[in-house]
């Protein structure tokens, strides 16, 4: 028998494309994993030496969807700092926040609004 074709060499599988895909996936997941910016909300815990309440009630209810109520009356988020400031002798007076059915994002948005307006003593009520 005659063999006219050159002998075939066995080819081993090439791993380069698989390694390329693995590195592309690695880079993709490394980039996607850090899209969110982590923040922290400083909370002060109440102590035994807390002062007494002075002045009128300052209860801010946070409802689902970000709706706000001040002492039971609906208030727009833009008007809340002015209406709350009228009830306070100083910005360091405590303000009670209550978020019964609201999401955590709604509560944090209300806290950001109040801290940006200068209210520093926020008390979170269950």
From TrEMBL:
Superkingdom of this protein's organism: Bacteria
Keyword set, alphabetical order: Cell membrane, Membrane, Protein transport, Transmembrane, Transmembrane helix, Transport
Keyword hit for tRNA processing: no
GO cellular component, one term: plasma membrane
Any GO BP: protein transport
InterPro entries noted in UniProt: ExbD (IPR003400)
Subcellular location(s) of the protein: Cell membrane
Membrane-protein topology: Single-pass membrane protein; Single-pass type II membrane protein
Bilayer-spanning residue ranges: 21-37
Molecular function as annotated in GO: transmembrane transporter activity
Family indicated by similarity: Belongs to the ExbD/TolR family.
Name of the protein in question: Biopolymer transport protein ExbD
Organism classification: Bacteria, Pseudomonadati, Pseudomonadota, Alphaproteobacteria, Rhodobacterales
């Amino acid at each position: 028998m005659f063999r006219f074709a050159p002998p075939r060499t066995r080819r081993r599988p090439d791993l380069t494309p698989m390694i390329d895909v693995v590195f592309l996936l690695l880079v993709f997941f490394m980039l996607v994993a850090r899209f969110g910016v982590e923040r922290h909300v400083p909370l002060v815990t109440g102590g035994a030496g807390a002062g007494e309440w002075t002045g009128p009630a300052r209860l801010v209810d946070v409802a689902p969807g970000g709706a706000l109520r001040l002492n039971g009356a609906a208030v727009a988020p833009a008007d809340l700092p002015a209406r709350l400031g009228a009830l306070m002798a100083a910005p360091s007076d405590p303000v009670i926040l209550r978020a019964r059915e609201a999401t955590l994002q709604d509560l944090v948005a209300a806290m950001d609004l109040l801290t940006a307006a200068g209210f520093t003593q926020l008390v979170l009520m269950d």
